[in-house]
Amino acid sequence: MITKTKIVILDESPLMRKVISDIFSKDVGIEIVGMFKNYYDMKEFLDKLKCIVDCIIINLIFDKKDLLNILLNLKEYGVNIIFVANIEPERINFAQQNLGVKNIKFIEYFGKLNLGDISQIKEEIRDEVYKIKNSRVKRALFDVQKAIVIASSTGGPKVLEYIFSKLETKIDIPVFVVQHMPDGCTKQFVERLGEVCNYDFCEGKDGEVARSNVVYVAPGGYHMQIDFGKKISLNQNESVNNVRPSADVLFCSAAKVYKEGLLGIVLTGMGRDAAHGIKCIKNSGGTTIAQNERSCVVFGMPKSAIETGKIDKVLSVDEIIFEILKHSGKL
C-alpha cells in the first residue's frame, strides 16, 4: 500500500491553486487534501484534520506582523512549509534566523507574476515537494507528536511534586494533569509546583495551544480536553465518575490526538476515574502505566485501571520517572 504525501495549498488565487495542484495531479503518491483562499479557513481545517499532513504550500501577501504571527502559529503544527513569497529578503532572513522555524522553504519572486515566473515557481515547488516525499523525515501534525497525561487524586499532590522535582532533564513534550481538587484550589497547587520544580506549570486555558515542557493542570470545576491542533478546551459539562475535572475526559480526548505517541499514567487516588480513559489510550496505540499499591496512599484508581487489562506496567514512582524519560526519548 502506498503511503501518500499529503499536501495543503493556501493561495487566494483560484488560478494558482489549480496551477499548483496540477503539478502533482498524475502522481498517485501525492494527495492534495485541502485547498484554501484564506489562512483562517485553512487553520480551522488543520485543527479538525485527523490525518497526517506533510507539507503546506502558501502563496499569500502578508504584512510583516501577520507573516511572523502566521509562521509562529504554523510552527506549532510541526509541518513542512513551502512559502511562495513576494517579500523582502530581510524579512525572510529574520523569520528563518529568529523564529526557530524549521522545515520552511521560501521561494522568492518580485513584482507581478508573469508566465515565466509561474513556470519557474512550479519547478521550485515540485523540487521541494519531492525532497519532502523522498526523504523519510516527514513531520506529522498529530500521529508522531508525543505527550503525557496523568491522573491523580488522594495523595497525588506529593507524588506529582516528587516526580517533577526529580525530572531535572527537560522532556520536550507537553504534560496534562487531572488532580482531583475542590474549585479554586488548583491555582495554589500550580504555584507550589512551580516554586519547587524545574518546569513551567499552569492551569489549562480554553483555546491555548499546548507547548512542550509545560505541565497543564485541569482547573478545579472544569473538564479539560485536548483537541486536534493540540488545543486545550475547557467545559463545565456534567461530572464524570462523580468528579469534574475527570481524567477519563482528558485521557480519551488526548488519545484521539496523540494516538501511539501518548503515555497515560494513573497515580494514587480513590475511585474509578481514568479506567475508561486508559482503555481509550491503549486502543489508540498508546502506552499505559499504573502506580503500584505499595507506593500509593489510596490504590483505588490504579487498581481500577489495572482491572481493565489495558495497563502495560505497574510501577513505583521512581520507575515511573524512568518511563517518562524513556517515552520522551531522553534515555
Q: Care to give the gist of this entry?
A:
The chain has 331 residues and is α/β, with parallel strands linked by helices. Helix content is 37%, strand content 22%.
Keywords:
alpha/beta, Rossmann fold, 2 domains, seven-stranded parallel sheet, five-stranded parallel sheet, 14 strands
Q: Can you offer a commentary on this structure?
A:
The chain has 331 residues and is an alpha/beta fold. It folds into 2 domains: 5-134, Response regulator (Rossmann fold); 147-327, Methylesterase CheB, C-terminal domain (Rossmann fold). The chain is 37% helix and 22% strand. It is built from 11 helices and 14 strands. It has helices at residues 14-23, 39-48, 64-75, 89-98, 115-134, 156-166, 186-196, 247-258, 275-283, 300-307, 317-327; strands at 5-11, 30-36, 55-59, 80-85, 104-108, 147-152, 175-179, 200-203, 214-217, 223-227, 231-235, 262-266, 287-291, 313-315. The strands form 3 sheets. A 7-stranded parallel β-sheet has the order 8-9-7-6-12-13-14, sandwiched between helices. Helix 6 crosses helix 11 (317-327), helix 8 (247-258) packs parallel to helix 9 and helix 9 packs across helix 10. The longest helix has 20 residues, at 115-134. The protein is elongated. The model is unreliable at 136-143 (pLDDT under 50).
